[in-house]
Amino acid sequence: MHARFLDAYALTLWADLPDNEPYLWDHLAEHLLAAEADLAFAEQREPSDVSLRLLIRNFANMGHLLNRFSTYTEIAAVLLSRLMHLQELSDLYQASEQDMPRPYLASGTCCQTCQIQH
Fold first, then answer.
1. How many domains in the chain?
2. What is residue 83's predicted lDDT score, i.e. its pLDDT?
3. 91: which of 41, 82, 100, 112 lies 20 to 30 Å off by Cα?
4. Domain range for 56
5. What separation in angstroms does the CA of 31 have from each of 2, 45, 48?
């Protein structure tokens, strides 16, 4: 239900959400976390999908962090920082990192482009 609600906005990036959407800006993290139930449902349908299991486990582990932030940039930075080390999710991470609003803090390398170790 939450995923359908979020999908109804048909945005490629949450950063494109208009400023005149105060409800969603105030409750975006809650709806994203609630959509985790959709991940659990998907896992039941595709129990052998390793990437899906990793996403579910990592979303559960970072829920307390996601609840602290209120903007897309903050939430996206946390998601990326928590997923970047997982080789199985590298395609998802790389696609998301390209769309990440700049500047942002990252651990390990500052971005896929420059590959500078910090």
1. 1
2. 83
3. 41
4. 2-98
5. 6, 22, 26
Q: Residue 53 falls within a domain, yes or no?
A: yes
Residue 112 belongs to some domain of the structure:
no
Mean pLDDT by 10 residues, the chain (118 residues): 76 78 82 75 86 82 78 79 83 78 65 52
SS3 sequence of 65-107 = HHCCCCCHHHHHHHHHHHHCCCHHHHHHHHHHHHCCCCCCCCC
In-domain check, residue 24: yes
Backbone angles phi, psi at 105, to 5 degrees: -85, 140
| Whole-number Å distance between alpha carbons of 30 and 67 | 7
Q: Are 72 and 40 in contact (CB under 8 A)?
A: no
d(CA 17, CA 83): 23
Rounded to two decimals, the pTM is 0.50
Q: Distance between CA atoms of 58 and 44, rounded to whole angstroms? A: 17
Write out 34-70 in H/E/C secondary structure: HCHHHHHHHHHHCCCCHHHHHHHHHHHHHHHHHCCCC
